[in-house]
Design a protein that fits this description.
The protein is α/β, with parallel strands linked by helices. It has helices at residues 13-24, 31-38, 44-51, 53-67, 85-91, 105-112, 124-141, 153-168, 171-174, 179-185, 209-219, 238-248, 272-277, 297-306, 323-334, 346-355, 414-421, 429-445, 451-462, and strands spanning 2-6, 27-30, 73-76, 96-102, 144-147, 195-201, 226-232, 252-255, 269-270, 282-285, 291-294, 315-319, 338-343, 359-362, 374-377, 402-405, 425-427, 466-468. The chain has 19 helices and 18 strands. A 6-stranded parallel beta sheet has the order 2-3-1-4-5-18, with helices on both faces. A 6-stranded mixed beta sheet has the order 7-6-8-10-11-9. The chain is globular, with a radius of gyration of 25 Å. The structure holds NADP nicotinamide-adenine-dinucleotide phosphate.
């Protein structure tokens, strides 16, 4: 697999590429040097001034086509590689992970002002305009984004490696082809012994679960043992569907709206945490044929938080008091956090807070959030199409906070944008979705879930990008 580094001139791509190449014991290539080797000019500036930018871009595309066929290699690209989509296509000819090294314009300016070898940075205003134009292109092209401000090339390279590892499992070590390629070349066909998992809901056609689970089955090569499908089951059809599910011995049933509570009396056994939450989103057939209900929305909230912070003793504000809030409240309380519940309807916040010995507030008392370490937003405020709405004013957000939103359309809600601006660490709702699916996957298959594949499927489907946040003290 190749690692392709993208970023504006001066982002540190060349140095980081060398560090990565050394760590991984593979070669790196500097595309600008390859362009020079093809040209008769002594410098990139000379190609620009004597032959023009178009001539440079043509050479660049040629070089991308050549190096896109070589693997494994770390590719350090020129800042303008994103100007032509054919460059990116060419660099993806082999399995490749695109990493955007994001550096703020202020830092670039410090590094590059006065550097006569950078033809496009001779005029700061023009460079700023170019930066603004290219930024969304880098973001769109990237599989992941690594912030480089204030970090050494070694630190950036370590983050890139962690990220590559996270997104690809161990593929960068084994150089296996991507899951996509495997899916195309080795189709798995269900057989008479294939276990059926499914999602029930109404509506259900929009669900990402079948795609996410089936790709994950392929990734860990259990697609002949398991298949995941969706079935539209209306509220009044649940009992009938349940009789059918038992008779057909389905392996796992994912329950979404409107079945999360209604399924409970039909089950043989209930996980204690699901019982506290009062909702089940995952039903598993046990080895003795009985069916047990779980709530993996709890893991959906708690696992992403625990990856970043030890929740024990932390003050956690849960915004909302509906179904997702219940999963969050019981999950963080179980992890040892102090819980504050804020809700539009105060009585609902009070009832929920009372169940966990927490405190309750109306959304009008949002100031209380200022003193919290973690905020988990679970209302529907800010969901597409109302993307400008936020349940909390930006004034209550702090740089030390970890802010998670359950909403995943849009990928980054107004609240998360405000939190990012305030310097906080943000977790998009897509991550909650992935992790409830991870827990579900493990209950259904008994295998470790390929988290990176599941994240990739979700980011592709929702057109989002996983950010690598700055290091934070826990
Ligand atoms: P729910 O049970 O209906 O609860 C809705 C919550 O939103 C209630 O607390 C409600 O407050 C509040 N609310 C609704 N409109 C509001 C408004 N205009 N102003 C202030 N508060 C408002 O819904 P849910 O099942 O918990 O789902 C909530 C959100 O979480 C949805 O966006 C859902 O898509 C998302 N979710 C995401 C995942 C995931 O995997 N990422 C999983 C589950 C849910 P009141 O009590 O005052 O009505």
């Amino acid at each position: 697999m190749n690692i392709v580094l993208l970023g504006f001139m001066g982002a540190g791509k060349s140095t980081v590429a060398s560090v990565l190449a050394e760590k991984l014991h593979i070669s790196s290539v500097e595309l600008d040097e390859e362009i020079l080797a093809l040209s008769e000019r002594p410098t990139i500036s000379a190609i620009f001034s004597l032959d023009g930018e178009d001539a440079f871009r043509r050479l660049e595309t040629q070089v991308c086509q050549t190096w896109g066929l070589v693997s494994p290699v770390i590719v350090s690209t020129g800042g303008g590689v994103v100007e032509r989509s054919e460059n990116l296509d060419a660099l993806r000819q082999r399995d490749a992970l695109f990493v955007f090294l994001h550096t703020s314009f202020a830092t670039l300016q410090e590094r590059l002002e006065g550097d006569s070898t950078r033809p496009l940075f001779q005029n700061v205003e023009a460079a700023r305009a170019l930066f603004d134009k290219r930024l969304p292109r880098y973001m769109n092209a990237a599989d992941c984004i690594v912030d480089t401000d204030g970090k050494t090339p070694e630190a950036v390279a370590s983050i890139v490696l962690d990220e590559v590892h996270r997104l690809t499992g161990n593929r960068h070590k084994t150089l296996r082809p991507s899951a996509m390629v495997q899916a195309c070349t080795c189709p798995s066909v269900p057989s008479a012994s294939t276990e059926v998992c499914l999602i029930w809901g109404d509506p259900v056609s929009h669900s990402l679960s079948p795609r996410m689970h089936n790709e994950a089955y392929r990734e860990i090569e259990v697609a002949e043992q398991f298949v995941f499908v969706a079935a539209q089951v209306q509220a009044q059809e649940l009992e009938q569907a349940w009789v059918g599910a038992r008779a057909m011995k389905f392996r796992g049933i994912t329950c979404t709206i409107p079945h999360k509570q209604a399924i409970i009396p039909l089950l043989d056994e209930l996980d204690p945490l699901a019982k506290k939450v009062g909702a089940v989103n995952t039903v598993v057939r046990l080895s003795d044929g009985r069916y047990k209900g779980y709530n993996t929305d709890v893991e959906g909230v708690v696992l992403p938080l625990k990856e970043r912070i030890d929740l024990a003793g932390k003050r956690v504000a849960i915004v909302g008091a509906g179904g997702a809030a219940r999963a969050a409240v019981f999950g963080v309380q179980d992890a040892g956090a102090e819980v504050l519940v804020l809700n539009r309807t105060l009585e609902k916040a009070q009832a929920l807070a009372e169940e966990v010995g927490g405190s309750a507030y109306s959304l009008q008392d949002a100031d209380v959030v200022e003193g919290c370490d973690v905020i988990v937003q679970t209302t529907s405020v800010g969901m597409t199409p109302h993307i400008e709405d936020s349940p909390l004013p930006s004034s209550v957000l702090r740089p030390s906070q970890l802010v998670m939103d359950a909403i995943y359309t849009p990928w980054e809600t107004r609240l998360l944008q405000d939190a990012r601006k305030a310097g906080a660490t943000v977790i998009p709702g897509a991550e909650m979705f992935v992790y409830q699916g991870v827990a579900q996957f493990e209950l259904y298959t008994g295998c470790s879930a390929p988290v990176s594949t599941m994240k990739r499927i979700v980011s592709e489907a929702l057109e989002g990008t996983w950010h690598v946040e700055k290091e934070r003290a826990s």
